[in-house]
Structure of (2Fe-2S) ferredoxin domain-containing protein:
Amino acid sequence: MPCRVVVCRDCCCGSPKVTGVDHAAQTARLRAEVPVRVSDCLDVCDQANVIVVQPSAAGRAAGARPVWLGLVNDQDATEDIVTWVRAGGPGVAPLPDILDLYVFTPPRRTAGS
Ligand code: FES
């Protein structure tokens, strides 16, 4: 299984509540480059827009877990995610330093896995 990206789009992520980002363009950009699944609310709305990068089978075998990225509200971050996923994603390619700033630990659940 390849590395996949879960894009949250619901009550907050992808809504006008999050300003300064073209949500449709963000989803389209990711879809054009990597496998994408759009998800209902992941219950971490204070982090909107939320994107979860799921490890590939190889990444999982290397011990990687899904990586949650929050406040992904600029085009550069979206591009950095594309680059990372194309390089192999969690467990395969090192997390780019710049994406470190977006990583958070979901408080309540381990969804996205
Ligand atoms: S809408 Fe994305 S976390 Fe709630």
